[in-house]
Design goal:
Distance between the termini: 29 Å
Strand content: 25-35%
Number of helices: 6
Helix content: 25-40%
Radius of gyration: 20 Å
Shape: globular
Number of strands: 9
Order of helices and strands: HHEEEEHEEHHHEEE
């Protein structure tokens, strides 16, 4: 890799803007507006988001997960409760979510606390998944070391025999988390790196909006 070429890589953002006067007073509504525009733009996996966690000792970790539900109570994703991210959240529920929609030159960061969703909500979503995804949830001991791909595939076949379908029960170690936001940041790329950044902070029962310097 040529360091000079890397340093010279840049794009000029100029397609849109984000003004305080046009933004919604409610960050959930603002997110919904932007997400609708993402859907209209037909961006691949618009619900892909970076989940950032940290252990009780402060060791950070990040990975891409998929947003599977959102309302005024928070943002929902599903995972193995024995995975590293779930273990982090059990020790330290503070986390963040980050969306990057390059085609619209936009980012959204959401900071808050995560808690498990109800068993009913996890059951309902698990039942909606494709058959092989449900079998995969049983087969994968997520985040644990395995000797080979063959070992994973053998476990997959074992659970296919155990649950030939169509009904597959939800594993007790698999379910959802809901991130309840305490702060949002909406970022819109602008020319000259003078980007628009609006921060929503929940203070005394209502959302306060402030513009941040880029």
């Amino acid at each position: 890799m040529d360091p000079k070429k890397l340093a010279a890589m840049r794009l000029e953002y100029s397609s849109r803007k984000l003004s305080r006067s046009a933004a919604s007073a409610d960050p959930f509504e603002q997110f919904s507006r932007w997400f609708d525009e993402v859907l209209e733009a037909e961006i691949v996996e618009p619900n892909a988001m970076l989940l950032g966690t940290a252990s009780a000792a402060g060791n950070p970790s990040g990975r891409i997960v998929l947003l599977k539900g959102v309302d005024k109570s928070g943002f929902v994703f599903f995972t193995n409760y024995e995975s590293r991210k779930a273990r982090d959240l059990a020790e330290n529920p503070q986390c963040f979510l980050h969306f990057f929609w390059r085609e619209l030159e936009r980012q959204v960061a959401i900071y808050g606390l995560a808690d498990r969703v109800s068993d009913l909500e996890s059951d309902e979503y698990f039942a909606s998944r494709p058959y092989e995804s449900r079998i995969g949830a049983w087969a994968s001991q997520q985040s644990r070391r395995i000797a080979s791909r063959r070992e994973l595939e053998a476990r997959f076949e074992e659970f296919k025999r155990r649950y030939p379908g169509p009904d597959v029960p939800r594993p007790p170690f698999w379910g959802g988390f809901r991130v309840k936001p305490e702060r949002f940041e909406f970022w819109q790329g602008r020319p000259g790196r003078l980007h628009d950044r609006l921060e929503y902070t929940f203070v005394e029962g209502k959302w306060r909006i402030e513009r941040l310097s880029p």
